[in-house]
């Protein structure tokens, strides 16, 4: 570990270190989460000042115990996500999930690439001034994908109690399934369920395991904002049970959608 090496990954978190340095947590393929000292990064004219959260970085590092960044290349910055509260909080939610699930110092294949895909989608929302529900949908789908990658997938296809297929009968508005956070989803209204979903909500949730968001033929996002908020709540409950806590940024995301006016196109 004392030799010079090159790392590439996504910066998830930064904190102050000493008088002018930063402590950077980087998500990488080869080492999972790795913490690095960035000397002088808090100085106004530092060449390493771009070591900030939500940035795709390529770094030359060296040192023995705590690796120190020698050189930094900014591959892609997602700082524009901060222009809208909902895109920033959605990105922070996904970063928090990575911090919770990715091991330190162990290979984590697929994690940086998946996170970058969803950050790119959030960036498009800002650039194209899309509706705020788009950010909510990316956070919900991105969370499901990351949970599956981390081994905490929400079982969406089979009843947790009966073992039968979860096949939501669209158009049957009396049908329900229950979220049992310690088990999964079960057909019917099960006593003690954390949440009940109707057929259309479950169908939308099941479609989120595909690569793209569910859209109508004219490109509009399926599902109203209220349903996406419910799906966010469902994922928060699943995280609290299986990861012991849900991302704190989920609450900020919910508040940004419920309290802020939607931007005009």
Structure report:
- This protein has 265 residues and is of the alpha+beta class.
- It folds into 2 domains: 73 residues, Nucleic acid-binding proteins (OB fold (Dihydrolipoamide Acetyltransferase, E2P), Beta Barrel); 181 residues, Up-down Bundle (de novo design (two linked rop proteins)), CATH 1.20.1440.120.
- Helix content is 34%, strand content 22%.
- The strands form 2 sheets. Strands 3-2-1-4-5 form a 5-stranded antiparallel beta sheet. The protein has a 3-stranded antiparallel beta sheet with strand order 7-6-8.
- It is elongated and about 60 Å long.
Structural class: alpha+beta
- The neighbouring-strand order within the major sheet is 3-2-1-4-5
Order of helices and strands: EEEEEHHHEEEHHH
Q: Choose one word for the global shape.
A: elongated
Number of strands: 8
Please name the fourth-level CATH homologous superfamily of the largest domain.
Recombination protein O, C-terminal domain
The count of helical stretches stands at: 6
Parts with pLDDT < 50 across at least 5 consecutive residues: none
Count structural domains: 2
What is the CATH architecture assignment of the largest domain?
Answer: Up-down Bundle
CA distance, first residue to last residue: 51 Å
Q: Report the sheet with the most strands, covering strand number, pairing sense and barrel closure.
A: 5 strands, antiparallel
Strand content: 15-25%
User: Into which percent range does the helicity of residues fall?
Assistant: 25-40%
Question: Class of the largest domain, according to the CATH hierarchy?
Answer: Mainly Alpha
CATH fold-type name of the largest domain: de novo design (two linked rop proteins)
**Rg from alpha-carbon coordinates:** 20 Å
Mean pLDDT over the residues: 93
